[in-house]
Amino acid sequence: MSSDQDHLQETDTEARFEFKKEENAAVRSGKGLTEEVIRMISEDKDEPDWMLERRLRALEQYHNMPMPSDWPGMPDLSELDVEEIIPYIRPDVDKREGVDDWTELPDEIKDTFDKLGIPEAEKNALSGVGAQYESEVVYQNMQEQWEEKGVIFCNMDEAVREHPELVKEHFMTTCVPPSDNKFAALHGAVWSGGSFVYVPEDVTVEMPVQAYFRMNSEGMGQFEHTLIIAEEGSEVHYIEGCSAPKYGTHNLHSGGVEVFVGEDAHVQYSTVQNWSKNTFNLNTKRAICEENGTMEWVSGSMGSKATMLYPCTILKGRGSTDTHITIAFAGEGQDIDTGAKVYHNAPETSSTIESKSISKDGGRTNYRGLVHIADGAENSSTAVECDALMFDNESTSDTMPYMEIEESKVDVAHEATVGKIGDEDIFYLQSRGLDDDDAKKMIVAGFIEPITEELPIEYAVELNRLIELEMEGSLG
Amino acid sequence: MARLELNNLHAEVAEGDETILEGVNLEVQSDEIHALMGPNGSGKSTTAKVIAGHPAYEVTEGDVLLHLEDDEFGEDIEIDEDQRTWNLLDLEPNERAALGIFLGFQYPAEIEGVTMTNFLRTALNAKIEEREELFEDEEDDESDAADDEGFESSPMEGPADEGEIGVAEFQQILQEKMEQLEMDEKFAQRYLNAGFSGGEKKQNEVLQAAILEPSIAVLDEIDSGLDIDRLQDVSNGINALRDEQGTGVLQITHYQRILDYVEPDHVHVMLDGQIAKSGGPELAEKLEDKGYDWVREEVYGTA
Q1: Which of B94, B131, B196, B218 to mutate to test the interface with A (most CBs of A within 10 A)?
Q2: pLDDT, tens digit, for every residue of B123-155?
Q3: Any chain A CB within 8 A of the CB of B153?
Q4: Which positions in chain B touch A428 (Cβ < 8 Å)?
Q5: Which residue ranges does the record assign to the SUF system FeS cluster assembly SufBD N-terminal domain (chain A) (predicted)?
Q6: In which residue ranges of chain A is pLDDT below 70?
Q7: Which CATH superfamily is domain B2-300 in?
Q8: ipTM (interface predicted TM)
Q9: Where are the domains of chain B?
Q10: What is the sign of the dihedral through the CA atoms of A156, A159, A164 and A169?
């Protein structure tokens, strides 16, 4: 058995995700959102003026927008007080742009990522790794072969300095402008860290690149920004993982993701989200797809107190394709409101959305999705399938699939199922020798199987493992 | 040798007062084939489910005992004298399975996303493990408790060598048993009963029994929904259970037809929640000819 599997064998959620480290910050902003805080962040990063201006503009937009409150069945955000969140903590590391050798990191940070299994995964299955601790990327490395081919994988702050033209053009302009929603505006004001990925024409990055985001300090907010530009005919798979220890007060994660999929390019974006259950997870993720480009979103949402996340693809070019695969798991006190958005703005575009959600112990999942097919997007097709499995009568699951079809020559399919885990099914498995817990685990594994079988194996294993850990609590 | 003993068994539906079993007495032992017949609603399926531990039924009186001899589970497991009789009503369904009880379902569950191979290997290993726990010496308990603190790998993605029976070894067992039952090998990769025809499901129940090697198999209408070819395959499978593994079979059926292939040693007729009459194979033939009314008349007398 490899040490990687040993790591996966580790059972205790506490040991794997919820360990806490002493906070050791070099710079720490005050709470709340003032111009002063924004200026301080920008100055600490030694940013060019144009970026500071964008931040301040976003801050103004944030203050002018109301909190979303009119969505049917939306998670309760009343306990979230953004003014109490610490938006910026720069950990005390020597090298600002992040090191490329794990051993150069302070022990407590190195130990954190060791426990999360990141260096091990890097050795075995990844082209590159970025690791963010609090507000800053502390480790960044990519195999040389990709660098030689012109691939860029660096932290977002470095990209602002080193690749200003690309960033100026793509950063929160056409894809996710701060005006998109209140949390996008918040993100635009206080963003810090994240990844910048640039893949030149016709380059295929064979193994995935991974970024891991870790929040350690109580009451902080993490606002990393990820910008991926895949040029014509290129291909890349980006994986992000996230976790934090649990605290009594609330943390906020509000990431921004922008993906530009060039002609004939193919981008897969996978997320395993395991934030602690005091975290509000409110993200904006969007991709723009050129002609014959392909965008795939894979999301596993296991953690957080409340999640609102609807990765969006704009199918702008003729013949472009979108795939969404979503797994959500909500336990006690969790409200996972997630789904997908697709805009078919060109002919012959297609989208496939598969969503599986599981709720137990009073948790709630909601699939909220929008498929828009514009007038003139002839011969486009969409297929939406959402299935929900509930463990008990206390748990809830809703499905809100919206469709806006303006074009008549289209193919639209939609299926939804909602069901409670069946007593007869459990008894059947028990009568063959499985105990009650294992019977339920087997049924859940089977429920998500159509999705996990499409995933890369390491990712599928990790996802299954997380779901099992979630189930341990209630079943054990 | 194993012997299943039902003593004065009374049971009702757990949520409600409807009494279904009114004092069933029955014994089935290894190497024997029993047929349990009777009109609809007489309590046959309930008897089967109560033996296996279905949570929808509550036993209000009587016992379900399983008697084992010391060599029932081979040389590896030593059965002490005080562990030879088990009151199944105190045990969970999976513990009953570990002791060698198998229920062939009239309507097997369909479990999407779980392959036959994965399911059967998991079940077999779970059964072996549970059996070890049931028979382990008490002084070992403490060290085992410590072991249990570790996370047990799940059926869905554990490493290939996990469990008593590894993947390669299991493939071989499965292939052998499937050939015996003339089942297409594609079954191994299909999801458990999902989209199976009625006949395929029944065949699959017999396959599961063949792999789990029960001491006592209760087969609830295994012959319903079978065409003649498959009836023969299924019958061969049931006979093999008895002939090769010494399984005691309690077969619930409405029809004489399967009894032509699986010849019973004993035939019982159930009426109104009790065994009303028992006899040899000739009893089944008589029922086929004359129906159940004459039994009713014989038992209750004519009005």
Answers
A1: B94
A2: 999 999 999 999 886 555 444 443 433 333 333
A3: yes
A4: 105, 108-109, 111
A5: 138-210
A6: 1-15, 458, 472-476
A7: P-loop containing nucleotide triphosphate hydrolases (3.40.50.300)
A8: 0.92
A9: 2-300
A10: negative
